[in-house]
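User: Study the shape:
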Amino acid sequence: MVADNYNLTHAQALLKEEPLEKVSSYAEEWVKSSPHSLDALQFCGMISVKKNNLQKALDYFKRAVLQKPTEVSCHINLSNVYLALGQNIEALMHLHQALRIQPLHAEAYNNIGRLLYKQRRIEEAILNFEKALRIDPDYWEAHYNLAHSFALQNQINRAATHYQEVIRLFPLHPVAHFNLGLAYLDEENYIEAEKHLSTALTLKEDNFEALKQLGQVYVMLGRINEALQTYEKALSLSPTAADIHHNLAILYLRNEDRTKAFFHFKEALSLDPTNDTAKHMIMALSHTQTTAAPLPYITQLFDQYADYYDEHLKNKLRYQVPHLLRNAIGQGLGNNPTAGRVLDLGCGTGLCGIFFRDLALELIGIDLSPKMLKKAKALGAYEKLFRSDLNEYLSQEQLEPFNLIIAGDVLVYSGALHQIFKNVAQALAPQGKFGFTTEHLETGTYYLQPTGRFAHSSQYIRQLAEENHFTIELEESIVPREHEGVAIQGQLYVLKKHLKQGD
């Protein structure tokens, strides 16, 4: 090559058009012909970085600094290589040198922030990213780094603001769209989460994490078929993802495709032997009996269900339990307008609670699902809400007695009810009442159904009532809900605690 061809404009044009190896040969010839050229040394350093030869890049950038110690870009480039090599002290030294030469240098402050972020000195990193943005408000990389820092501190709203700025300045940034989608998902803004996660997938179709999170968004929006398609695509990218098999199993079960549900539950359990939900549902679908649903299964089920629980129960399942239970209890009170201190077992989103608010001097709810309790709290119907297993709560020492305990559609998650009845009897005041519903079993005691819920026989309930000193005030057949348009047969009971003989 002729020496006159060696210049930065030509080099940059080659970089756009030619293979990297050809550009690398050009760069090395250039620096041989002009060993003191700052442009040649900087360009060779940049090409070495692209080829991931950091030691060679370090050599070129050091030579560039020696050629012109007052050139800020030389110090910035050298610091970037030191940072990539994990030589933080040297990286910081050259960044400070860049700021001594040019005090208002946005990239230098941004890179100091990156170095501090890597050291988990997040507060200090944030200050430097903010300095970079005061110098250059449209510096998208500083917005991006600041968003990451706020996300790490769980300051989701502030993180989202800066991801939005990244997208304004760099509309096709796939990671910014993905992270903004996660921020909206965390804030339960599912419409915006869907928009940004879908964009991230448009920009990078094989983004497994984006597919996984978008599937969750569709679940929360109640768009089950889209969730299934999204999870299936995610599974094609990662066939051994236990959580995706688990999610697919739940959704296929909800769609009444028990064959596919069973398959995915088995896959989920083989990949994660600690999966209590898979264990329980494999037993239910294979007609294997057990005494109770595992607590993690109940928690996960209702956490996932919380956002569209009320609408699903009322509109699709035609759920009748709250008002049926309220009418039954109300009739038993006669002229007494109050039930006193009331406990709502498995209160969920508060569907039963709002029916009993007028009867309660104090209404307390307990549930295993944090998301359900959040919904119940928003109703404002309860004096207190507790996250607890019902047996754990009821068996507390010095628990103030209740006048009424209700369990609407709750006992279906336990087969053996001996401990529950014992604890309820212990927690009730004398003459206190226990109102609850069951799904009907013709004979025997209890039976785990393919739905994962237990049915109980009337004979079993009467036996438990007698053993725990309850009088049955009311026992009636009800239709608590529908399943795929078919009425579920159930029972509603109101029991009254009586004094033991000799008390």
In short: The mean pLDDT is 90.
